């Protein structure tokens, strides 16, 4: 059984919270929805949890309709019994505020709280999250529920953490109703103060859009032609802030009643675009994240690693919690591919390698009814005598063996800059090519680093860059002056930076930076582009270093930079495509086209070489290597995604098997090893 947790008088910074976790292991468990089952099942649940080594479950996430079956009438009896049972079994609880999905009676009494799409269509109850994030009714009723739940369970000995709502904005990130319109106007007044400033920022001299009264402004509802881009960008900012306001409001209430740390599950790394989680990170005591593999992607484990590295970046490098992933298939993709034997272990431990101090799943027991009945769980429909449950038990044992790594941090000499605002802005309409997406170059550079065995932190451009050797800025279309300046200072101080095309183009108002592209980075890179030459669909160009590229070329002058490669064909033969400029003690590279994968790998290899960055361990392609460190101590994670046994150099004790590595680690196909490295 785990020791009770004492989180002290107040939850503090994320690392402080994770470090105060006094249990004797890494968190392991998942969403537990006992309300879907008869009470007789509950004791078997606890018994199986103990057998698997589960030590933390999230309870009550979608329980509002059962906890408050009628306005103001609360029924806590069943939850009392569940929490007591879990506590008696030594299982700790991450208790939800239960506000994730409002009960049907609330929408019936207040239909004005239902969200509306841009075309005015109402999104009705019957799914989940059917509420407008700006609705005062929803806010008031949800906070009453938080007060009731927190008031009742603040001192319950099983509760070690609070779980605000669930995946805020997963289904209702943008609401265009009249209530939202009014809230949007309020947000704009705060941002701009007066209409002149708004008219200037939105460039309303264009197309007769000038506003003379705040009441004339609406969310970017369905329009005749292209909607004003800055209006769209501000609406995305506003919408993220409105959801964040719900998190903050619930947190404020919790803070007056409870002492345990507070989190909410983010959805970093699955293409979830609408919430600027970097700006939310200060509103949680520890960062937690949900991640699901994209079944259609044969390289889905790269997506997983990226999500984990990005979550760690949002957490400022501190340990974080994987709140949800799946033991096998999900039910919401077109073809829900099941995990092969061993994949669950590789997936879960890859998150741990990349900084997770806990791995939880959706969900404990597979539902027998409802939209998620074909979603995998820790206990499948077929029961515990299954591949999945056996692997769950194995994972429980693995995590126990890894207890000592808790609180350690991940080594990374490379940073990739990532900004939700740049993502929003670069994917607005009316741009030079629909083939430019934010994820494209981010993933391309990340993939090249992954294949090279090099761990990267995915961080906001305003992060402290001084600890890195190499910083990559893919498609940083929108950038603030201060952040562009920080990259310059990083290079001057000896760092290597690489910027890819369509970066530095606009300021935070989405106004072009004049004088030649890539505006904000022009001086640093020593290049000036006078015109873009996007390519036709499927068109490819060749470079004089043998590389091929597609999607994008530009008429670039390398006025103050060395030319490393130029086009040999396409619209711009002889024009530079890849440049490098020595700056202070470092160097700044520019990549003006969309290099194919081998060329991107070669480019990244050169950058790593110049920056003096080495992989965590020399490993064959397809073997993931990551190092966690705590002061003098370090652990090397090796995950073999290939079909062959591999060998890598390692000195120390392998924690999952107890074997000694005297110079070499032998890792069978599909296996994972964690070596506590000898101190040299
Ligand atoms: C998450 C959600 C869970 C469950 C899961 C299924 O988005 O938080 O409640 O729906 O997906 O994969």
TrEMBL record:
Q: What is its EC number?
A: 3.2.1.23
Q: Which residues form the Beta-galactosidase trimerisation domain?
A: 412-613
UniProt entry keywords in alphabetical sequence: Glycosidase, Hydrolase, Metal-binding, Zinc
Enzyme class (EC, first level)? hydrolase
Catalytic function, reaction form: Hydrolysis of terminal non-reducing beta-D-galactose residues in beta-D-galactosides
Q: Which GO terms describe its biological process?
A: galactose metabolic process
Where substrate is bound, by residue? 128, 166, 332
User: One cellular component GO annotation, for this chain's record?
Assistant: beta-galactosidase complex
Which residues are in the Beta-galactosidase C-terminal domain?
622-677
- Domain spans labelled Glycoside hydrolase family 42 N-terminal: 31-401
The protein's gene is named galB
- Which positions bind Zn(2+)? 132, 175, 177
Q: Which domain of life is it from?
A: Bacteria
State what protein this is by name.
Beta-galactosidase
Active-site residues per Swiss-Prot or TrEMBL entry? 167 (proton donor), 324 (nucleophile)
The entry's family comment says: Belongs to the glycosyl hydrolase 42 family.
Question: What CDD domains is this protein classified in?
Answer: A4_beta-galactosidase_middle_domain (cd03143)
